[in-house]
Design a protein that fits this description.
7-stranded parallel beta sheet, disordered C terminus, 16 helices, alpha/beta
Length: about 475
């Protein structure tokens, strides 16, 4: 379907023409008519399907028809990160180039001048405000932001906002809206918490779900089954074999990103890091240096797994398996863009086996395995859908313990010898029956399994807490 079949304003169509937008994507074709009907909406579609245009275009088109206040905020778009807010703002400027529609991106990490510009725009009433939750709440708390005339409230990447702990912030902002505001929710995944939020804030919504597309065929995917302690030496081994040029490494938390970047710098690699603890200017400079080739490797959280606009990334490495299978598709989709070849490597520790199983179920095919180099020691045995136990390459396990750096084995003192020390005579006991012996062996195995289970889970980090709603940079107070 063409845009001129569902949009009426010539100025909007002229902007699309200049941007070489002719045909609607599936999410745009299904969403735009629903928005123009005034219905609430919940849409599930992955990044790269055109979700931003799917909600901005009908809103701009409707604002151009008139009937909305010129001195008030008419639309609020919530974004989980500064980078996505900036990207949405750039697209808005392109779509509304020939129209008197004003927009403002509101996010943390700016200087005093930037904050003052945001304050003026919010006070005067920009037509469309794109904001991160924490900074929007900071402005709201000052008393000069009026959301009582908002007609459109849009949540972009809603699943990421909830993952980052912004549920309470969003609900506080929602409480300032008029009851007849039109609510649009867009999410790349649809976990239960998204459905719970939808039930609270949406009124008789239309549901749209675009199937998650598979990764590009030109991406060469592979997975290493390894222990957590083998990941860093394995990564260095890959870089020795293929010196990195344009590589993104995804890790699960900002602490791991910092540590990994520090270790890789010791190998004289040009490393940049991207996480929410960095100031906005630093993050922008990192991406500019990466695009310019001044940095070869960026170590990042999922903060750049969606929306990054770089076409020549040669390799994506999942240092940690993503929690959601759909996020795997988003991550590796950063490579093999614009019809180029690309490589995606995933390190799978024994506790991540269930996540890999979910990824392969989504892909409808197994991810090819690669062998851990011999000099790094034995690797776990992969067990589909279950956390693995220490095992050797043949699946028999490393006797007496788990491999650590360098492939060495930490011995279990209890497994070294069962012979009594000294000359203490062995007490005489009756030989147990075969049934009793089997029962004792079963109890012993159960106890060993329980101890392994406890050891494996006792070192897990707790779930990060949500961000401070009153902080001007609260969008950074998460593991993302």
């Amino acid at each position: 379907m063409r845009f001129d079949e569902i949009l009426t304003n010539d100025d909007v169509l002229d902007g699309l023409w200049d941007m070489h937008f002719d045909e609607c994507t599936p999410i745009q074709e299904q969403t735009i008519p629903v928005v123009k009907e005034g219905r609430d909406l919940i849409a599930c579609a992955q990044t790269g399907t055109g979700k931003t245009a799917a909600y901005l275009l009908p809103v701009i088109d409707m604002l151009s028809e008139g009937g909305y206040p010129s001195d008030a905020i008419n639309c609020v778009v919530m974004s989980p990160t500064r980078e996505l807010a900036q990207q949405i703002d750039r697209q808005l400027q392109g779509f509304a180039y020939y129209m008197p529609v004003s927009g403002m991106a509101v996010y943390g990490g700016t200087d005093g001048y930037g904050y003052e510009q945001q304050r003026k725009s919010l006070k005067m009433g920009a037509d469309i405000v794109i904001a991160t939750p924490g900074r929007m709440l900071a402005h709201l708390s000052m008393g000069y932001v009026d959301l009582s005339k908002v007609s459109f409230f849009i949540l972009d990447e809603a699943d990421r906002m909830l993952d980052m702990g912004f549920y309470d912030d969003i609900m506080q902002i929602f409480s300032h809206l008029p009851k007849d505001a039109q609510i649009l929710m867009f999410s790349a995944t649809m976990p239960p918490k998204i459905q719970q939020m939808a039930n609270k804030i949406l009124k008789d919504p239309v549901e749209i779900k675009i199937a998650v597309s598979k990764p590009a065929e030109k991406i060469k995917q592979s997975a290493y089954i390894c222990y957590e302690t083998q990941k860093l030496p394995l990564l260095k081994s890959i870089f020795r074999e293929t010196p990195p040029q344009r590589v993104i490494i995804f890790s699960s938390s900002k602490i791991k990103v910092k540590n990994l970047a520090r270790e890789l710098r010791k190998s004289n690699l040009k490393i940049g890091e991207m996480h929410s603890d960095l100031d906005q200017n630093v993050r922008e400079n990192v991406m500019l240096d990466f695009k310019a080739g001044k940095i070869n490797v960026v170590v990042a959280t999922d903060i750049i797994s969606r929306g990054i606009d770089i076409d020549d990334i040669e390799m994506v490495i999942n240092y940690d398996v993503p929690r959601e299978a759909e996020d795997y598709v988003h991550r590796i989709g950063r490579t093999a863009r614009a019809d180029r070849d690309g490589r995606a490597v995933t390190f799978v520790s024994n506790e991540d086996f269930p996540r890999l199983a979910r990824i392969e179920k989504l892909l409808e095919k197994p991810v090819p395995r690669e062998e851990v180099p011999n000099d790094l020691g034995s690797a776990p045995e992969y067990r589909s859908g279950k956390s693995g136990r220490p095992a050797g390459r043949t699946g028999k396990g490393a006797k007496g313990g788990k491999p650590v750096h360098g492939g060495k084995v930490r011995q279990n003192p209890k497994a070294e010898s069962t012979k009594p020390k000294g000359d203490t005579p062995k007490p005489k006991t009756e030989e147990p029956s075969k049934d009793a012996a089997a029962e004792n062996a079963e109890k012993k195995n159960a106890g060993e399994k329980g101890r392994r289970h406890f050891h494996r889970h006792s070192n897990r980090r707790g779930k990060p807490q949500g961000s401070n709603a009153n902080s001007s940079t609260s969008e950074t107070d998460s593991t993302k």
